[in-house]
Amino acid sequence: MNAVPGKGTVPFFALLCFATVAAASDTVKLSVDLTSAPQHIIHSTMRIPAVPGPMTLTYPKWLPGEHGPTGPIKDVAGIFVKANGKDIGWTRDPKDMFAFEVMVPAGVSEIEASLDLLIPTNTEGFSSGASATPKLAVLSWNQVVLYPARVKGNAVSYEASLTLPQGWSFGTSLPVRSSRPGAVGFEPVSLTTLVDSPVLAGEFLRTVVLDERPGRRVVLDMAADAEADLAIPAELLDGYNRLVKEADALFGARHFGNYHFLLTLSDKVSHFGLEHHESSDDRVRERSLVDADPRRLMLGLLPHEYVHSWNGKYRRPADLMPDDFAAPIDSNLLWVYEGLTQYLGWVLTARSGLTTIAENLDDLAMRAAELDARGGRTWRALEDTATAAQLLYESGDAWTAWRRGVDFYDEGTLIWLEADVTIRKLSGGKRSLDDFCKRFHGGGSGGPEVKVYGFSDVVADLNAVAPYDWSAFLTERIKRRGKGAPLGGIEGGGWSLTYGDTRSPLLKVQEDVEETVDVRYSVGLLLDKTGTIVDVIPDSSAFASGVAPGMKLIAVNGRRCSKYVLRAAIQAAKAAPAAVRLLLENDDFFREVPVEVRGGERYPKLVRAATGSDVIGAILAPNAETPYNNGSESKKR
Ligand SMILES: [Zn+2]
Hints:
The protein is α+β, with helices and mostly antiparallel strands. It is 29% helix and 28% strand. It contains 20 helices and 34 strands. Strands 1, 2, 4, 5, 8, 12, 14, 15 and 16 form a 9-stranded mixed beta sheet that branches. A 6-stranded mixed beta sheet has the order 21-22-20-19-18-34. The protein has a 4-stranded antiparallel beta sheet with strand order 6-7-3-11. Helix 8 (357-372) crosses helix 12 (408-426) and helix 13 packs across helix 14. Bound molecules: zinc ion. Zinc ion (ZN) is lined by residues 275, 304, 308, 338, 341.
C-alpha cells in the first residue's frame, strides 16, 4: 500500500471513499461557453467540491439512448485541473481512458476542472458526430462534464450556466433560472437530468407550442442554417398537434413536465433522433420542412422519439438504466425498448394524420421485405441484434443482410404488430395493444419518473390484457434462427407481403433523397449514387456470381451503368429468365459476371388478403377526439 502525501498512514481507499461521498453531497458549478461553437470547439469549466487527497474524475462513457460506450472522449482536449488558481495536473487511468486521477492539495475544498470539446465535422454517429454549424449548435451536456468517480448520476447535482453567441436563442427542457441575451442560468439538477436535457441553440430558432396544458406543455423548437428552412407547413404542424393528442389517447397519462422536440435542420450535422425523458434531439436534412421528399422521410422521427418518453424513459429495462455513466449496459431487451417504440411510432404517425394508411402500408412492406431477405437470420437470432447493439450501430451498411443490423427496430414492429393483432383476435375486437400501453405505460400523470421492468413484467401485463402464452409467443420470435421474417401480424391483419414490378411512391422518394438504387429483391443488390454496391443479399443471384459490397458496377450488358440501364436490363428478363452481364470494378481489377434474373423487377408491397377483415386499417385509424388546436406561435427570430 502506498502512503498518500500529507496524510500519514491513512489508507488510500479510505480517502477515496471519503472524497467521493463529500463531493457527491455538493453541487458542481458548470459554465459552458458556446460562443466558439461555430469554430467547432466548446469550452467548459467546472467548480467541483473536493477534499484533500486523491480524487478520480470521470467523463461519461455509457450514454442513455445511444446504447453503447459512445462518450466522445477522443474529442476532449485542453484538460486542466486547478486548486486555488494553481495547476495541479492530472493523470489518466491507464486502464480506463475515461478516468482522470488528481491529487487535491491540503486545505482545498473545491477544484476547478476545465476542458474543450472538439466538435467533429464528420456526420457519422450519434451525438458524438457533427453537432455545430456557424448558425446553430446542439449541446449534449455529457460531452462537457466530468464527475466524481463512482457517484451515481442522481447523487450529484450540477448548476449549469451557458454563454451563447451574439443573437442566438435556445430551446431545452432544462429548467431556466435566469435568461438575458447571450447568457442563461439553469436550476440545479442531478447529473442524470442534466445529461437528459440537451440544448438546441441557434441564430434562427423558432418555437411553436403544440399543447398549452399548464405544467405539461409540449413545444417544438426548431433551428436551421437558414431562416427560410423554418417555414413549417400548416398541415405538418397540425399533424404534430394531433400526435400529442393521439399519444395521450394511447397512453392515458404523461410522465413529464414540459416536453421539447429539439428539431435541428442542417445538412452539416449528424442525422438521428435521440430520446430524452422531457425532450428529444431530432436532427434531419436542412430542407426537411419545406421540401416534400425529405419531409416524407422524417415524418416517423418525432412520433418515435415522443413515444420514448413513455417507452424507454418512464418504463425502462432494469439493465438499461445507466445512471452510473461508467457502468456497461445489458441491451438484451431493446426489442421492447426500441422495437415497441418503432411500432407505436409507426401507429401514431398514421393516427395523427402525418401519413396516410397507404403510406404506412408501403413503409411496412419495405421493412418486412428487408427483414425477410436477411440471410443473417440463419446464424443470428433477433435477440442477439439487441444484445450486440453497441457493435451493430457502428458496423456500417456493408454486409448488413448477412451480418444483420439493428433489426430489433423493424422486426420489433412486426412482432408487436402481431401481438396487437393477436390481442384483438383473442378478445373478439374488444381489446388491443392500446390497453397494454395504458397498463404498462399509463398510470397517473406526473413528473419524470422511471419504472424499470424485465421480460416477465411485459408478459404479465400482456396476460392481464388478453390471457395467452405470451412468454412462448415472444421467446419464439426473439430466439428463433432461420429464414423468413415473422409476418404473422401482416397476415393476421388481413394483408400479405408480395412483390410487383412497380416501386411504391415511398421507395421512389427514399431512392431519390438517399441517392440509392434498390434492386435487392430481383438481383440482390443495393447500390449508392456512384454505383458502388452497398449490400448484397445472400442467396441472391448476384451473391452467387461473386458480387460483394464495395465493388463498383461500371456497366450492364456492355452499356455504362445508370439506374435506368440497370432497371431496364432487369425488367427485360420479365418474360423469360436471362443473364444480365455486370461489369464490376473490384479494387484495381475489372471483371464481367453473368447474374441470372427471373421475373424482372421485384419491389415489395402489401395486398389485401382474399379473406379476413382489415385489422391493420383499424389499428392505424385515429383514436383521439377532434377537433384539434393548431399550434400557436410563442416566439420567433
Ligand atoms: Zn428509439
